[in-house]
Automatic annotation (TrEMBL):
Listed Gene3D superfamilies: P-loop containing nucleotide triphosphate hydrolases
Pfam families listed in its UniProt record: ABC_tran
Keywords: ATP-binding, Cell membrane, Membrane, Nucleotide-binding, Transmembrane, Transmembrane helix, Transport
Record-annotated ABC transporter domain positions: 2-228
The keyword ATP-binding is assigned to this record: yes
InterPro entries xref list: AAA+_ATPase, ABC_transporter-like_ATP-bd, ABC_transporter-like_CS, P-loop_NTPase, Type_1_exporter
Protein name: ABC transporter domain-containing protein
Lipid biosynthesis as UniProt keyword: no
Length: 234
């Protein structure tokens, strides 16, 4: 439960994410997906139970140490009124020019950098208003590549991007997920079919776990959510 709120946001939630695997958190709005991700980052601590990284209770980590092990690509990327370079280097201020260039390349930002009047030293405006939604999301991906943390939390909403931007962002995200333990907060179920495990939440509880195919065959909540989204897309 949140401080000052007696109702539990999550209850009896238990699952294990194997190292190097991709797990998607799925469920209706308010099911507890974002709260789980916030627990992993220690924005909150659980009122009961433990969250562990490896075998270590997250509460035993210094916050800076814990968060150095986790990269977050959020739905809305906050950019400061500074240069593109400084906005990426937030993830690793002491990074070399070579490391920065590699992160820019991997995040598919190279064409943007070439088009800017001062390249990486071009100011992006307050909250990055001079960049498109897709470009801002690629900056977040570049930060994650530069940070090179073993755990990735991906708030995977790309529905506000046009098709071309989404294609570029998704390709960069696929590269970013490789060889990392990845937790996806899934908003569009079509994007998480290949997850190693899907955890379905409803009203703060885990109601199903399995692969995309397994859960479709179960014909419970996940199958209904997929059917609803496919129906809405027609």
């Amino acid at each position: 439960s949140y401080p000052g709120r007696p109702r539990r946001v999550l209850a009896d939630v238990s699952f294990t994410i194997p190292a190097g695997k991709t797990v998607a958190l799925v469920g209706p709005s308010g099911a507890g997906k974002t709260t789980l991700a916030q627990l992993l980052m220690r924005f909150w601590d659980p009122s009961d139970g433990v969250v562990t990284l490896g075998t270590t209770d997250l509460r035993n980590y210094q916050l800076d140490d814990l968060r150095s092990r986790i990269a977050l690509v959020a739905q809305d990327t906050y950019l400061f009124n500074n240069s593109l370079r400084e906005n990426i280097l937030i993830a690793k201020p002491a990074a070399s020019d070579t490391e920065l260039a590699q992160a820019v390349e991997l995040a598919a930002l190279s064409e943007l950098v070439k088009s800017l009047p001062q390249g990486l030293d071009t100011a992006v405006g307050e909250r990055g208003t001079s960049l498109s939604g897709g470009q801002r999301q690629r900056v977040a991906i570049a930060r994650a590549f530069l940070k090179d943390a073993p755990v990735l939390i991906l708030d995977e909403a790309t529905s506000h991007l046009d098709a071309l931007s989404e294609q570029g962002v998704r390709k960069a995200l696929d590269q970013l997920k490789a060889d990392r333990t990845t937790i996806i907060i899934a908003h569009r179920l079509s994007t998480i079919r290949d997850a190693d495990m899907i955890v379905v939440l409803d009203d703060g509880q885990v109601v199903e776990t399995g692969t995309h195919a397994d859960l479709l065959n179960n014909r419970h909540l996940y199958a209904r959510l997929v059917s609803h989204q496919l129906g809405g897309a027609r």
